[in-house]
Design a protein that fits this description.
By secondary structure, this protein is mostly helical. It has 6 helices and 2 strands. It has helices spanning 6-15, 33-42, 52-60, 108-122, 125-133, 143-163; strands at 2-4, 28-30. The chain has a two-stranded parallel sheet with strand order 1-2. β1 (2-4), α1 and β2 (28-30) form a beta-alpha-beta unit. The longest helix is centred in the last third of the chain and has 21 residues, at 143-163. The protein starts with a strand and ends in a 6-residue tail after the last helix.
Length: 169
């Protein structure tokens, strides 16, 4: 299994195959997404991870076959490609996210203004199309919903680190 960069190697190895799976993998870190994808295209490795923008051209040229997306839900950027959890590895999830944050102590009125403007921006079909072209599925949420999401993410990764005895390399 390829992974773009050394920082990705440990999470890919420890999180992509649930402990309950019979699957076995060996993670290989490459010096970026390009070399990792080249290794998959050439047959040097059997499977690899990549983001949509980096792999889209090779998928369109039939040089790569998408097997699944790493999120729990299908991606609008790759219609017809199921989540990996539905494509053979139950429990699989490894997805990134981006969020808008402000310093602690930011006045609530400013937080509300920023959130309102962000929601307005993400309601624009042109903006959504640009995100989707980049392989991102934009989701607007309230500050409290985002705080709840962050709390769940922190707990999830703490549990994974603890259960798999992950140490900094």
């Amino acid at each position: 299994m390829t992974a773009p960069g050394a920082s990705f190697r440990r999470p890919a190895r420890t999180c992509t195959v649930p402990p309950t799976s019979d699957a076995s993998t060996t993670s290989l870190a490459y010096k970026g997404g390009g070399p990792a994808l080249a290794a998959v295209v050439s047959g040097e490795v059997q499977v690899g991870f990549s983001n949509v923008p980096q792999s889209a051209r090779m998928v369109e040229a039939n040089r790569l076959r998408p097997i699944g997306v790493s999120s729990l839900k299908p991606s609008r950027a790759l219609p017809g490609v199921p989540p990996v959890a539905e494509a053979g590895v139950p429990g699989f999830e490894f997805s990134g996210w981006h969020g808008l944050l402000a310093p602690k102590g930011t006045p609530p009125a400013i937080v509300e203004l920023l959130n309102r403007k962000l929601r307005q921006t993400l309601a624009d079909p042109v903006v959504v199309a640009r995100f989707e072209k980049g392989g991102l599925d934009p989701i607007a949420s309230s500050p409290s919903e985002y705080a709840e999401f962050l709390g769940k993410e922190l707990e999830k990764w703490r549990r994974v680190i603890r259960e798999r005895n992950i140490r900094a390399e």
